[in-house]
Amino acid sequence: MKWIRRLLLGLVVLVVGIGAAVVWKAMRTERRVGFQLTRATDSNGQPFTVGIWYPTQARTWPTTQLGLNLMDVAADGPVAGNGLPLVVLSHGNAGGPGSHADLALALADAGYVVAAPMHSGDNYADQSAAGTVAWLGGRNRQLRLTLDYMLKSWPGHAHLNPARVGAFGFSAGGITVLTAVGAQPDLRLIAGHCAESPEFICTVLREGNSPLLDPDKAKEGNTYAADPRIRAAVVAAPGLGFTLGPGALAAVRVPVQLWSGEQDTVVSYATNTKRVREALGSGAEFHSVPGAEHFSFLTPCGLLAPPLLCTDPGQFDRKAFHLGMNASVIAFFDKNIR
């Protein structure tokens, strides 16, 4: 029987050790940050999840799991401060509110409120809308409805300054944010581009028999609305950049910070970010990141580290990169909406 007791003791020690390691690896901030998961409502009456980070005076605990990481936050703590700037955050295809949790925490630490919608039908749990005709237009609508919710219905909305609003988007979230500040992608261009290109998104659309590969059907999806409340935008590795034909970015009047990874083979610079950069000209603050690939822009991984999302090329240091990028994003928003 001694061996059973020793085995049980060993298991207890192992579990306690793993728990301690997880808590020790939790994402932390210098100032206290509150967090809550709530829901906004889409135009069809269906709710969608929104993750919200904000300054607070409440005590924080390293017990809130979001995506692959544990956060040291005050769950549902009261909001601290008034006239706070707001940043809405659009995740990439198959992502979620936790995709850029470290950036959200850094912004909240700096005095911002951050709202990250979980795009319906295009998240890690549900891909039913991805590649459909309504895909991009739906993302655009949900980003705007998140702003509506935050500025009008969120219990903490009185702490916000509606004149100080920014947006961040990555990959599919990048093109989503661009549409929200005036870009007009033409989805009819997908078919011609994908007929000649081995680009990753083209492979995905072909394998899924996407109607977007039919120019006539794709035309029906060209419905986006700009949101004049957004005064500045940060866009990282924007997908579907090849749908931005001549004049597609002419209505973008807000300052844009643009990021690209030099080793990105998922969303190539030449047919995506480059088009945005050239169209915006001096209106874009461009950052090219040596050694970074597409998923390098996602939050650095904790103990749970799936290789596809968490493995960077060579000796690239994702944590160090994010410290620098987050500081640059905060400085950009400080300059343009603060």
UniProtKB/TrEMBL annotation:
Which molecular-function annotation in GO is an example for this chain?
A: 1-alkyl-2-acetylglycerophosphocholine esterase activity
Statement: the UniProt record of this protein carries the keyword Lipid metabolism: yes
The record's Gene Ontology biological-process terms are: lipid catabolic process
The UniProt keyword set, sorted, is: Hydrolase, Lipid degradation, Lipid metabolism
Query: Which top-rank group of organisms is this from?
Result: Bacteria
Q: What is this protein called?
A: Dienelactone hydrolase
Q: What is the native source organism of this protein?
A: Hymenobacter persicinus
